[in-house]
Design a protein that fits this description.
The complex is a heterodimer.
Chain A: H1 6-13, H2 16-43, E1 45-49, E2 59-63, H3 67-73, H4 76-107, H5 115-123, H6 130-141, H7 159-184, H8 189-196, H9 201-229, H10 233-238, H11 251-262, H12 265-295
Antiparallel strand pairs in A: 1-2
Chain B: H1 11-46, H2 51-56, H3 66-75, H4 80-112, H5 118-127, H6 133-146, H7 153-157, H8 164-177, H9 180-188, H10 193-222, H11 225-230, H12 239-250, H13 257-277
Helix pairs in contact in B: 1-13, 3-13, 4-8, 4-10, 5-8, 8-10, 9-10, 12-13
Classes of the chains: A mainly alpha, B mainly alpha.
């Protein structure tokens, strides 16, 4: 920002920037701050049923402090869900981001054919809704339709891999594009200098390009972690095709079940706060670790 | 990539090495493209198969049932599929237009004015990226129920207008695309701030707005969780929720598979068309200030 005209501009503008920002702030208050506040409020309450729970006043909402959180933390079903999502998430993150990085480096390689066609093709799944992607793969996994023979893709042993494949298929292209865009911004003479020094293309990729990409890799990892912790669409859509996915397969599915099937809004509110906390801790924790590693400072 | 002129002494050997390396990247990328195109091409072929052909003919052999599949799908529940498609266009189109408008004016204000609280407001709006959608969707549903708006078009449209990442992109783009001197000149000529925004800034922001619109359009088009939670009446469903209910109803009836496959195939066409025609606006980085064709 230029300091020279700052004062004059601010003076002249007066209330204008606030008016320009009013729609966004109103939406923020109504659809972000209010729902979060309401979730916190609900998570601290519970209905108490007196007597047989019949008649007026038999059901009363009371403040229960952190009871719902204690229940959420002590819930074995939820922990099992976390474990499943952890395995699934590790698989998705490593394979998806690994492939995205590989494809971005290959697109940026000194000599490559069909770059445009392959770039568009690999990015294409971004335009495919998660539900549609899961349906397509889901049918391809069915032994009666599968071109891969009778492999039990949706059995208890393989279902995590099959689901991870859907996520990898859907997410690789977008991450590839983010990384490729970052690579394109690097001046070409960087590499030319290395080439003249006798560096091979592989060395250039490993020693120059990947370090340059580090911030973009961090960004894509954080977004992918947040998305993976909240996995919902793929297992929900795959569920009708197999009995190996329970209605509480992922923590978010448990929240949905608690809220709309069991009707326990208070448990759902507490669990969703726990999910939010875990995704925040994971993404900030990752940022911290990476920052220490990459830049040698806290 | 322009041909790099190597010093003559750099020699034949290195050039040859690089040519042979060109095979590796190309092969890797072609494998990637085969992987991504595989299920899409399968669903296109499978949609042409009749009920009997679907389970009997070989995977990539085209069938003869496309027309009957289409008429079955359009007849399903009095043509509810068309309604789903229309609803999706309405949610994605309306939502993306509103979202682009809000993001653009917010990004512009954050980029081009300095005022008390600017940093705070920016951080608040951007912090929304980190809030998991589930923490929002369920209380949003409950709050909409309280005011009688759950299970309406509004309940799907309104929560998707505010999009933190779009505001961030709009701010970066406004910073790069609009020179301060131009705004100052306008002010000296006595133009009001709104007029400056409309006449000076908006035309310069248009390419960035197209990008924001596209990303938001796709995000809403693909959204499943929010409409799944908000809506009960299938006349208001978008395609994603509609296809899911079709599957939930038909998973145990292989006779409905054709319907689901055909519906999935049709649901891909609009976005892929948009995607291919708007190639040059698909950018994940707007900081260069101009959308160039590559």
């Amino acid at each position: 920002m230029t300091h020279r005209k700052k004062g004059a501009r601010a003076h002249r503008a007066g209330a204008v920037p606030y008016m320009f920002l009013a729609p966004a702030m109103a939406l923020f208050a109504l659809f972000l701050a209010l729902p979060i506040g309401y979730t916190v409020y609900l998570s601290l309450r519970r209905t108490r049923v007196s007597g047989l729970g019949l008649g007026r006043g038999a059901r009363k909402e009371i403040f229960v402090g952190l009871d719902n959180y204690a229940a959420a933390v002590g819930d074995g079903e939820l922990w099992a869900g976390w474990l499943r999502v952890l395995g699934y998430g590790a698989l998705v993150l490593v394979v998806m981001l690994g492939l995205a990085l590989l494809f971005a480096l290959m697109l940026d390689a000194a000599k490559v054919r069909l770059a445009r066609f392959t770039r568009i093709s690999i990015f294409l799944p971004y335009a495919v809704p998660g539900v549609a992607a899961t349906l397509m793969w889901g049918f391809l996994y069915l032994p009666s339709l599968s071109p891969f023979g009778d492999r039990p893709f949706l059995s208890a042993d393989l279902v995590t891999f099959s689901m991870a494949n859907v996520a990898v298929w859907g997410g690789t292209g977008f991450n590839m594009l983010v990384l490729y865009t970052a690579l394109r911004a690097v001046p070409r003479d960087y590499y030319e200098a290395a080439r003249i020094d006798g560096a091979s293309e592989v060395q250039i990729a490993l020693r120059i390009k990947i370090p340059i990409l580090t911030p973009a890799i961090i960004l894509t990892t954080v977004f992918s972690v947040i998305a993976t912790v909240q996995v919902f669409t793929e297992p929900t859509t795959l569920r009708p095709l197999t009995n190996t996915i329970s209605s509480t397969w992922s923590p978010l599915m448990k929240v949905y079940r608690d809220a709309f099937v069991t009707g326990d809004l208070y448990a759902a509110a507490a669990t969703s706060m726990v999910i939010a906390a875990i995704s925040l801790v994971l993404s900030f924790g990752f940022l911290r670790v990476v920052k220490n590693r990459a830049f040698g400072e806290g | 990539m322009a041909a790099t002129t190597l010093p003559a002494t750099a020699g034949h050997a290195r050039r040859q090495a690089r040519r042979s390396l060109g095979i590796v990247p190309t092969a890797v990328l072609v494998l990637g493209a085969i992987y991504t195109l595989f299920p899409v091409s399968w669903v296109v072929v499978a949609a042409t198969k009749s009920k009997a052909e679907l389970f009997s003919t070989s995977t990539f052999a085209p069938g003869t049932g496309l027309l009957s599949n289409l008429s079955d799908l359009f007849a399903y529940r009095d043509g509810v599929f068309w309604l789903w498609l229309l609803n999706t266009v309405l949610y994605a189109g309306g939502g993306a237009v509103l979202s682009t408008a809000v993001s653009t004016i917010s990004g512009y204000a954050l980029a081009k004015y300095s005022f008390p609280g600017r940093g705070l407001i920016f951080n608040l709006l951007i912090g929304g990226i980190l809030v998991p959608s589930v923490v929002l969707a369920i209380p949003q549903y409950l709050l909409f129920s309280k005011v009688g708006l759950a299970d309406t078009y509004w309940s799907v449209l309104l929560p998707q207008i505010l999009h933190p990442y779009s505001i961030y992109l709009a701010r970066i783009y406004a910073q790069a695309a609009i020179p301060d001197s131009l705004l100052e000149a306008g002010r000296l000529d006595g133009a009001g701030e709104w007029r400056l925004f409309r006449r000076v800034a908006l035309p310069m922001l248009t390419p960035g707005m197209v990008t924001i619109f596209l990303f938001q359009f796709v995000a809403i088009w693909n959204n499943f969780l929010l409409p799944f939670i908000m809506l009960g009446d299938d006349h208001r469903f978008p395609l994603t929720v509609g296809l899911y209910t079709l599957l939930a109803a038909g998973a145990n009836q292989p006779s409905l598979y054709n319907l689901i496959i055909t519906g999935t195939m049709l649901s891909l066409i609009p976005l892929i068309a948009l995607f291919l025609t708007m190639q040059r606006y698909w950018r994940t980085d707007l900081s260069s200030g101009a959308v160039k064709s590559r």
